[in-house]
Amino acid sequence: MTKKIAILPGDGIGQEIVAEAVKVIACLKKEFGLDVELEEALVGGSAYDDCGSPLPETTLELAREADAVLLGAVGGYKWESLDIAVRPEKGLLGLRAGLELFANLRPAILYPQLADASTLKAEIVADLDIMIVRELTGGIYFGQPRGIRTLKNGEKEGFNTLVYRESEIRRIGKVAFDIAAKRNNRVCSVDKANVLECTELWREVMTEEARRFPAIELSHMYVDNAAMQLVRAPKQFDVMVTTNMFGDILSDTAAMLTGSIGMLPSASLDENGKGMYEPIHGSAPDIAGQGVANPLATILSVAMMLRYTLDEAEMAERIENAVRKVLDDGLRTQDIYSDGMTKVGTAAMGDAVVTAIRQG
Ligand code: IPM
Ligand code: MG
């Protein structure tokens, strides 16, 4: 049966990079019989400009009825001073919450061709392959109460709430343990249990849940140490599991180990494996519209979609092999450029991947 993919380019470079991912999907449809239909909708700042909401009801409906969602990025200077309730980021957070996409998988893999692009020494990052499992619908991102209030003395006070229920910790733990079982059986749970009660509970529940997975070796690390270890000796990690905000921060750090944040895809999954797929980078308003953004993270997000939601692992491999091939051929967008390579723009990179897929 034909599967439906909701295409939500969003803002900034989101438009440009999603266009390249759509070329890849079109090629798989035409040449390899991928049975999907695409429907595009607005989200983020562009949706706000169109109808005053960063997540129009029609977009949420489309995302709900689709089998998978491909998202570009949201946000930009233009909307930074809007009320927080209608900022572009609310569109993304609303999709995550509305679709109950609690499990965010962010693989940080170093392509050997890009060892020079990392700011870390090649031997520290060579063969790096980490999976960060970030809780995505709870924690301080969504906790109530939240806001900015004015105290009696007239001073303003901002407040947010870090909150996790046992069941939320348990289900993200299970996702991490299941993934580790298909990798190297090691999970490092990252918390701040020495200071925050909420993550003291996180540690307790992770430990308990791990008992159901005797093959898994579970360790715990405070988030400050984890940030340090990621740049000191990143290869000690197999799977990392952590809260929404810690995962946001650590996944950007892990991205830079791989040379560029422009390389990292992600999958956000619900209980049933339905997913939204997006690059982990943002809308990069500083380079939007120039045709220089790296489309590979978005293209690799399509590969994750094929593997996790559409059950087309072989086509996912086709994409991943094609990405390796274009890197082997020396093609580089500016974010991963190094001396002696061929600098290309967004569209040329997308076209090269399509050609490589065709030539298989
Ligand atoms: C990410 C982004 C988002 C987040 C923003 C755009 C709301 O940084 O996906 O990592 O904080 O989750
Ligand atoms: Mg982030």
Number of helices: 12
CATH topology type of the largest domain: Isopropylmalate Dehydrogenase
Which radius of gyration do the C-alpha atoms yield? 20 Å
Could you name the CATH class of the largest domain?
Alpha Beta
Question: What's the quick description here?
Answer:
The protein has helices spanning about 15-30, 45-50, 55-65, 90-100, 120-125, 165-180, 195-210, 225-230, 245-255, 295-310, 315-330, 345-360, and strands at about 5-10, 35-40, 70-75, 105-110, 130-135, 145-150, 155-160, 185-190, 215-220, 240, 265-270, 275-280, 330, 340-345.
Characterization of the model:
- The chain is built from 12 helices and 14 strands.
- The protein is an alpha/beta fold and 360 residues long.
- The protein has 2 domains: 193 residues, Isopropylmalate Dehydrogenase (3-Layer(aba) Sandwich), CATH 3.40.718.10; 154 residues, 3-Layer(aba) Sandwich (Isopropylmalate Dehydrogenase), CATH 3.40.718.
- It has a 10-stranded mixed beta sheet, with helices on both faces. A two-stranded antiparallel ribbon has the order 6-7.
- A hairpin with a 5-residue loop joins β6 and β7.
- α8 packs parallel to α9, α10 packs antiparallel against α11 and α11 crosses α12.
- The mean pLDDT is 97.
- 3-isopropylmalic acid (IPM) binds next to α4.
